Amino acid sequence: MLRSLLITFALLMMAPALRAQEPAVEVIGIGSTPIRLSSQSLTALPVAEQEVTFETSKGPATRRYKGVLIWDVLQANKALDGLKPAEQLEKTFLVSAKDGYRIAFSIGEIHPDFGNLPLILVSAVDGKPLDGGWRLVAPGDRRGARAVFEVVKIELR
Questions:
Q1: Rounded distance, CA 17 to CA 49, Å?
Q2: Domains of the chain, earliest start first
Q3: Which end of the chain is more exposed for a tag (fewer CB within 10 A), N or C?
Q4: How many helices (DSSP H) and strands (DSSP E) are in the chain?
């Protein structure tokens, strides 16, 4: 009986710590150490909010996504500082999900002077915070195949 009580007490004490671990995204390829993105670290960036419609197997689906632009994340972390525009356009980045799903993008796609795709690192959908981690959405795509659920890593190459 005492053992059960102690185990229950220990689990209750651990619960707040487990809940406090918010999802984070690791950004590598900028400097020598990875950068950890969290909702706290992104509060200084402008909020991006956009209604996006994707074709699905059940017809069109429209959602309102809120988060930050990947371009703003890269700029805030000085990812392209010191590079000429042509050198910037040589760069790509790979976005990885918790389940291993990966999608590649080029800087040219999201650069405001070129493709200007407002690629959003999403924290809320239809006004509700996401459960389980960040999502990446590519507005303008007809299908949502380049949307990445539970983003865990962005690798700049």
A1: 31
A2: 23-156 (3.90.420.10)
A3: N
A4: 4, 10
* DSSP states along 9-24: HHHHHHHHHHHH----
The C-alpha atoms of residue 152 and residue 93 are separated, in whole angstroms, by 13
Alpha helix segments (H runs only) across 2-157: 2-20, 70-76, 85-88, 107-110
State how far the Cα of 24 lies from the Cα of 98, in Å rounded to an integer. 11
Cβ-contact 154, 25 below 8 angstroms? yes
pTM of the complete model: 0.82
* Per-residue tokens: 5: 């009580």
Low-confidence residues in the chain, pLDDT < 50: 2-6, 8, 11, 15-19
Strand pairing category for 25-28 and 148-156: parallel
* 119 burial via Cβ count (<10 Å: 0-12, 13-18, 19+): buried
Residue 28 CB burial class (10 angstroms; 0-12, 13-18, ≥19): middle
